[in-house]
Amino acid sequence: MARLTAHGPRRPRGPAVTSASTPAHRGPVRDVLTLVLLPLPLLAATLSSSFSAGGNGTRRWFGGGRAESQRAQAQAAKDDAAAAFYELDTAQRDLRISIETITAVDDSPAARRTVADFEQLGRRIDEVSGRYITAVDAHDLDRDDLDASAASRARAELTQARDELTRTKQDLDRFAQNLGPLLGKAETQLARLAPAVERARQALLAATNALDAVRQAGLKADDLAGRLAALGPELTRLNQGAGQHGVQETLERAERVARDAEAVRAEAERLPERAAEIDRRLVSLRTRTQALRTRAGQVEPVLSELRRRFAAACWQDLQHVPEQAEQNARQAEAKLTEARAARDAQRWPDATSLLSTVRALLNTTDESVSAASDRLRRLDAVAKDPQQEIDRTRFAIRDAQRLAMAGRTTPEPRHARPLDDSVGRLDRAVAGLQGRHPDYWHFLTETEAVRETAAQVVARIREERGGA
């Protein structure tokens, strides 16, 4: 927008005739005094020449009222136009700050359209401002010889310029009102910027202090130090500011730096506790490994009992348990040794991973060692009284059948069929108990499978009826 400092209207000096103190226009007072003091013959001649003179550079005493009135109206129009120009210029400068706020944060299509509309409006402002300045420069309202017609033209042109400036100011105000959502969003993000950057700096400082405390305690934290050092360039970019990298990018960087630095701080503060936990796990897992080796040595007598009393099908799948348990125990001890070395070197992730491997090995070995003892116990029970297992399984089938028939005269085939199959399966399992060395393990696995089928039918019926 054009600036008044470059082409602004000259400050009005007002009509010359109104200044009684100006040396060139002390006329009325000075002339009266002169006439009073003149001799009578000279006074008559002077009055005669004054009234007969056609001007000759002096203003007439009578007949100039219309020109002065037009001059005053033109001057008033000039003042109104200047005020409108100032208002438009101020509004445009204020709005430009809002536009710059939006463009600094928002690169959406809506923001780009707003910037384009503002630029178009700015070109219109330049045009009406140019016409105003041209009108001001075209008319010198301070001229002594300004006639009524010239003053009238000046008033008309300046009034038109004022009206154009006023209409443009109204359009600018409406445009500013429509910026509300975009400007609010941008201001919100700008309000977040400084606190976000400060949080990132404080997080980095806290992480540095935590790391220093860990090192003073004699613990190494090389991986944490490396992660913290990697945040150094990010801090440099934060310090360079949003003016260089953009508000949105700076906000995202600040949040990322704060999050990563907080993670480093938290891990550093947990490091002494983590070291102590690894020490406890080393002791606990070594004790458990030794106990499991002792238990693994007891599997062989259990297998001997199974071989002596039951058919081969009841224990063949357990033959490998003693050897596998011993192998797993040796592997666990080797991993514990590696974990101890990793802990002494303060390679915390390696130590943690190795201890997890040891725990998984011991869990698997414990299950297989327990399976042998559990097998013998279950086989003993069913050999003494298979009827208890039979009754338990028949009850599960009958319970499922009652539910399938509830409220019906005939059951759904998809429910009845698996239950009927289960009845036949149980009968065959019971029949298999005949003979000198029955396969009790097959009998147990079959009854367990039948109960599982009955439970699935019950669950399906309840789900269907619950949904209905």
From TrEMBL:
Alphabetized UniProt keyword annotations: Coiled coil
Coiled-coil region: 148-217
Presence of the UniProt keyword Coiled coil in the record: yes
Region (Disordered): 1-25
Name the UniProt record assigns to this protein: Chromosome partition protein Smc
Organism: Streptomyces beihaiensis
